[in-house]
C-alpha cells in the first residue's frame, strides 16, 4: 500500500512598503491571476496555496500579506508569530522602497516568535518587483541582484514582475527550500550576536531560482502600469 505523503503547513509573511506589489505577487502566486486595480491592504490579507513538493511531502502555504508598517501597529507580534519564512518586496523604480526593506528585515528579526514564544530567525528573501517598468538596458543581472540582497542580510534576491509573471515561482521555491532545510537542521541557522561571524550556510546560500528571468525579461511588454 502506497504511503500517504506528509502534509506540512508553512506560514510565510509578505512584507514591504505600500504599492510595491505585495498583494499582486501573493495573488499571482496563489491564484495565477493579475489585476492592475489597486486597493490598499488594511491590516493583513490572506492567501493560500496547496503544493505537492515531492512524493513524500505536500505543503499548505499560508501567505500573510501585511499592510505598511504604519498600519500594523500593536498587532506586529500577533501577525509575526509562527512565521517560518518571509518575502520582502521593493519597487525597482522607487529606490527608497529598497532602503525601507532593511527596516522590514529588522522588524522581522526582532519580532518573529515561535509558538512557544521563543525568538526565531526566519529566512527572508528580497524581491525587486515591477521589473517590467525598466528599460531593457537598465535591468541588472540576476547575479547582481542576488549579491546585493545577500550583502543587505537577506538570503538572496530575485527580480520579479507580478504583471508578466516573472521570477515569482522560482523565488517562492527558493524560500520554501530554505525553510525546509532549517526545519530539518535548525541549529545550523542560528544567527549569532552582533559583531560575530554569521553562520556561513546563511551568507553562502546558492543563487535563487529565477526561471531564467534574464531571458524572460527580453520579452517584456512595453505597456507601463501602476501599482503591481
Plain-language structure description:
- This protein is an alpha/beta fold.
- The protein has helices at 22-31, 69-72, 76-80, 95-111, 142-151, 168-184, 200-203, 213-217, and strands at residues 6-16, 44-54, 57-66, 85-91, 124-129, 157-159.
- 37% of the residues are buried.
- The model is unreliable at 190-228 (pLDDT under 50).
Reconstruct the topology from this structure.
Layout: E1 6-16, H1 22-31, E2 44-54, E3 57-66, H2 69-72, H3 76-80, E4 85-91, H4 95-111, E5 124-129, H5 142-151, E6 157-159, H6 168-184, H7 200-203, H8 213-217
Parallel strand pairs: 1-3, 1-4, 4-5, 5-6
Antiparallel strand pairs: 2-3
A few lines on this structure:
This protein has eight helices and six strands; from the N terminus they run E-H-E-E-H-H-E-H-E-H-E-H-H-H. It has helices spanning 22-31, 69-72, 76-80, 95-111, 142-151, 168-184, 200-203, 213-217, and strands at residues 6-16, 44-54, 57-66, 85-91, 124-129, 157-159.
| SSE string, helices as H and strands as E | EHEEHHEHEHEHHH
CATH-level-4 superfamily name: P-loop containing nucleotide triphosphate hydrolases
Strand line-up in the sheet with most strands = 2-3-1-4-5-6
pLDDT below 50 for ≥5 consecutive residues: which ranges? Answer: 190-228
> Which range does the strand content fall in?
15-25%
The name of the CATH topology is Rossmann fold
Keywords:
single chain, 228 residues, alpha/beta, Rossmann fold, 6-stranded mixed beta sheet, disordered C terminus
